[in-house]
Amino acid sequence: MQGLFAVFRKEFRDHFSSNRFVILFALIAMVSFITCYMAGLHLKENLEGLATTEFPFLMLFSTPGALFSMVQFVAFFGPLIGLVLGFDSINRERAHGTLIKLISQPIYRDAVINGKFLAGVATISIMLLSIVLVVSGLGMAFVGLVPGIEELWRLFVYMIISIFYISFWLGVSILFSILFRSIATSALASAALWIFLSFFISLGADVVANTVAPVDRQKETKPEILIKNVRVKEMVSLSSPMVLYSEATAIIIDPMRKTTRSLVLMSPMEKLLSSRFQNPLPLGQSIIVVFPHITALIAITLICFAISYLVFMVQEIRT
To answer: What number of other Cβ atoms are within 10 A of residue 88's Cβ?
Structure first.
């Protein structure tokens, strides 16, 4: 595609030279380092327990600091990176009158949208890689932990999932920047969708579950009603990208977790067998457990960008 690299290079340079990017990256990096430091203090105080842990290095990312762990922080606030990078990617060009000049050059229209999205994805990848490397370095220097081969592979898979997760929000913000000519409107719409999908879906899941299968807290509830309540809540919650990402990364980062379900009923024989097999899951098995979550994240990211692509290609561009 003619002009793709030129648009990519220009957008990539603009991202790293913008003040808002520097401020956002500094804020996220600072909170990540503080969280890692708090987690490192907790791990350093429990060195005897770390000696019996098979994957202690991953605990730097899964152990909560003052409020949350590194994985939880990215789940909650990682979308802000994608939203900030893309909420004015198209309507800013319209406002400045540079979009019509750009496509009047020997540059195909699809190269504009593809270059902007790829530049955002590359920026997100560099940010996440930098944060993970610095947190890993602090953990090795402060606690003395050295990652093993499987831990490195798990961090790599975690990085891939995180890139797709934040890229979904990048696609959302680009879509709103195409639909709305006002930069403020696209920013507000992006933030509103993030708040709704990340926080209000969980509240709605409780309401739907209690409506379909009411649970009386003061009386004993039948097991089948309780199971139905939990299943409905889980199904509704999975419509949130944050829940998909949180469950997927929790299994990848914590090898001792073997299921994403919050309620698992077992027979006495199953309990006996599970108590005898408390070894961590291999990486391949962990990926199989969360494969539907990973597939869903990749799918919604590609679908969101495809919608942005189609809308931009058929949209009329005026001077």
So the answer is: 23
